[in-house]
Structure formats: C-alpha cells, structure tokens
C-alpha cells in the first residue's frame, strides 16, 4: 500500500527533460544547424589555415616553421606587429577612459541624453565611411583638411605667417641675397636719403587685404625714409622698373632692419603703402629684409606622414568607439547603489575620491567588459588603416590584419598570410579565456 510514497524515483524509461521541458534529443536537433555552420565557417577555416601555414606559398611542399620565422624576421611584418601592440595598448584604454569620463559627467547635466546621442552617433557609421571622413579630415592642405585648418589657425594666432613667401629682388635691384634667405642693400644708407626696396614675385591678387597703393618716400633731414613695394604692373611695357608706379602696391608689415657690424641697430615695419622711416641711429648701416618676411606659410602637421599616421588613425577609431564604451559604462553606472556614494560623501570624501575609490572599483566588471571587447576589436582592425593611410605611409601604419590581406592578395604569399592568421588567433585566445573566467566568476557571485 505504501509503495507509491513521496520519495519514489521517476520511471527509468522516461526521457530526462530540462527545466524548460525540452528533451535532450530535441535540443540537439535544434542546435545541429548552428553546429554545422560553426564547423563550416569557424572550425574548418581555422584548421585549414593551420595546415596551410606549414606549407610553401605554392602549396606543393612542406615549409615547416619557415612561415612563422618570417613573421619575426621580415621588417614589414615586424612593423605590423609593433603597430598592433600599440593599438591594443592605446586604443582600448583611451576609448574606455573617455567613455568613463563621458558617462560620469553626463549624469550631472540636463542635456546628458542629447550628449550621449551625439557621442554614440559615430557607431552608426561604417568603418569605410569613417575612413573616408578622416582621410579628408587629415588632408595636408589647411583649406581641405579640418585638422590642419584648426592647427594652422591656432599656430598663426601665436606666430603670424608671412604674407610674402615668394617675394624676391628683381633685376638691377638695390638688394642682394644674404644668409638664411634675407636680403641686404648693396650700399649703406645715410640720413636725408630716401631708399627704394623693390621686390617682385607676389601676384597682385595675392597681396594682403591691407595693402595700399605704394607711395614714393619723401626725404627728411636727420632721418632715413624709404618704400618697399611690389615692383610689378600687369601689361607688357607698363610701369617703370625700380620706381613706384600708381598701380603698384606696398608691402604692409614688411620688417626692415638697420644692420651695422652684424648687429641690428634699429628695426621698423612698413606702413600699408610700403613707406617706412628710420632715425639717425641707422646712419651708415645696411638695410636688411630679414628671412622672416619671406617664410613659407605654416601648413600644419603631416598627420598621415610616417610619424603621425598610427596615432591619427587611432584617433579616428576612438572617435567611433568612445560612444560604445560610454553607453555600456553608463548602463553599469545606472545600476550602481547610490547609497554607497552618499555614504562616502557623508564620511568627508570629495568628488575625486568618490570617483577613484568608489565609482571606479564598482564599475570594474563593466570596464573589464569594455576593455576586452575593444582589445579583440583592435586586433582585427583593417579598414581604417587601409583607407586612411596613403600609400606613401601605409607601410609605417601597417597592422597585422592589413598585412594578412597584403600577403595573401597583393604579395601572393598564402603561407605567410596563414601564419599571420594563426598568430592573430593566438593573440585573441588569451583575451577570450580571460573574459570566460571573468564571466564564470560573475556567475558564482
């Protein structure tokens, strides 16, 4: 009678089901298509690449570890490895730091949501489009590239560029070339003398906006007067050489120095009409137009040159992915217990101490997720480098994923390309294992 008690085990022939009521057989059947695709698209390519990395480029012979030796002896591949290491260290850290900063600060402003939307918006742009955008941003010409337009504007605010970079003396000029690109008068000047300093080489339309029609100097007793002007008039046979004509313009702001025994005894700047006046201190001196008058205009930095190409491209990557980091960190920040922050403030901690000792430690799991995700992402960075870096500096900005493409398709070295792919896999695996262990620790908690 009591054989059907509470502790009776289920019948042995009944299939075991999961908590959702699904049998193991049904679960395997549903997983089978995914497993087949996983094998075809992941496992098989990895296995094939591993085998191919030990074969020669033609695929007909066994190369042993020669392809792997080439990874650490070929200068181009070594550059790619070095740049990839820079990417892995710098790009995720900067993007995560900016994301943390944005997430914390936007909590304190009313328009924080709008700011987050703007910062996150680049994530909606493809890498191809972002590469084209930043290729234009980093153009060398300040009139085309936004980066150099800003940089040149800041530079010229503190160090004004010359308006006459191509100006030089013409034929039968009283000026002669001097050291460093300056020009000197051939003869000393004396008080009561009026001096003509004609130059050519600047087209009338390129003259500064403040330039006025040149005016011939008037001799003054006890002073040295003169004019420096653009000795050029459009039209054949029009105008008199080394003489001020009505249609010619003065050089406004041109610096004129009086030099005696190698020392500058007086310096003045020409007026808008090119006229200038020196005191008796310049008597017997040579007049010099210093090289600063003819300095080439500052054109900014060579953002995509060999030196700055990698930092510039990393900057474009951070522009895209800082929004991703900000959104994840903001989500972690929203779930943070506020009573801990308030308790720290009550105990006398200032905002920086609260941020450093409470906020950041509590956000450590989220920060780890962002860092690991971005590290895996930058290991396979390809399109930004390929699009932004010009051909002249692409070797200097090279990374492993780009080198894999170039070895496989441009250089026709599939053995080297396969070895690079296995190296990338080996670099990703430790990061993946770290992420898995971290997730398991989170589950145990």
TrEMBL record:
InterPro entries from the UniProt entry: MetI-like, MetI-like_sf, UgpAE/MalFG_permease
CDD domains named in the record: TM_PBP2
Cellular component per GO, a single term: plasma membrane
Keywords (A to Z) from UniProt: Cell membrane, Membrane, Transmembrane, Transmembrane helix, Transport
Topology in membrane: Multi-pass membrane protein
Top-level taxon of the source organism: Bacteria
Any single biological process term in GO: transmembrane transport
Domain ABC transmembrane type-1: 81-435
Spans through the membrane: 25-46, 85-105, 117-138, 318-337, 358-379, 416-436
SUPFAM superfamilies registered for this protein in UniProt: MalF N-terminal region-like, MetI-like
Entry's family note: Belongs to the binding-protein-dependent transport system permease family.
PANTHER family in alphabetical order: BLL4140 PROTEIN, DIACETYLCHITOBIOSE UPTAKE SYSTEM PERMEASE PROTEIN DASB
UniProt-recorded name of the protein: ABC transporter permease
């Amino acid at each position: 009678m009591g054989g059907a008690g509470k502790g009776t085990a289920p019948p042995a022939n009944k299939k075991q089901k999961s908590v959702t009521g699904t049998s193991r057989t049904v679960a395997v059947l549903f997983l089978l298509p995914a497993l087949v695709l996983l094998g075809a698209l992941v496992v098989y390519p990895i296995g094939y690449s591993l085998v191919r990395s030990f074969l020669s480029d033609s695929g007909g012979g066994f190369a042993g570890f020669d392809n792997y030796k080439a990874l650490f002896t070929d200068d181009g591949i070594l550059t790619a490895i070095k740049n990839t290491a820079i990417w892995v260290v710098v790009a995720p850290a900067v993007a995560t730091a900016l994301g943390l900063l944005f997430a914390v600060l936007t909590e304190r402003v009313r328009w924080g949501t709008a700011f987050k939307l703007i910062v996150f918006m680049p994530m909606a742009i493809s890498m191809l489009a972002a590469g084209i955008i930043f290729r234009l941003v980093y153009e060398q010409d300040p009139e085309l590239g936004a980066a150099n337009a800003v940089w040149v504007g800041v530079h010229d605010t503190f160090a004004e560029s010359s308006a006459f970079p191509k100006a030089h003396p013409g034929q039968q000029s009283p000026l002669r070339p001097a050291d460093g690109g300056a020009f000197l008068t051939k003869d000393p000047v004396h008080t009561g003398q009026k001096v003509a300093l004609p130059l050519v080489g600047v087209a009338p339309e390129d003259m500064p906006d403040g330039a006025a029609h040149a005016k011939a100097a008037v001799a003054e007793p006890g002073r040295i007067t003169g004019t420096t002007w653009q000795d050029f008039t459009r039209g054949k046979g029009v105008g008199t050489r080394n003489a001020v004509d009505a249609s010619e313009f003065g050089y406004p702001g041109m610096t004129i120095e009086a030099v005696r025994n190698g020392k500058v005894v007086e310096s003045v700047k020409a007026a808008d009409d090119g006229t200038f006046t020196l005191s008796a201190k310049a008597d017997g001196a040579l007049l010099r137009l210093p090289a600063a008058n003819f300095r080439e205009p500052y054109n900014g930095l060579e953002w995509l040159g060999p030196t700055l190409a990698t930092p510039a491209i990393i900057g474009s990557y951070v522009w895209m992915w800082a929004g991703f980091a900000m959104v994840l960190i903001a989500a972690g920040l929203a779930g943070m217990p506020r009573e801990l922050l308030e308790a720290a403030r009550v105990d006398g901690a200032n905002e920086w101490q609260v941020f450093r000792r409470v906020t950041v430690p509590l956000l450590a799991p989220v920060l780890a997720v962002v860092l690991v995700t971005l590290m895996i992402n930058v290991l396979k960075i390809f399109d930004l480098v390929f699009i932004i870096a010009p051909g002249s500096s692409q070797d200097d900005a090279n990374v492993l994923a780009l080198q894999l493409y170039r070895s496989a398709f441009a250089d026709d070295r599939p053995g080297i390309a396969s070895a690079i792919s296995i190296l990338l896999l080996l670099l990703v695996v430790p990061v993946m294992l770290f992420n898995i262990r971290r997730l398991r620790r989170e589950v145990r908690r």
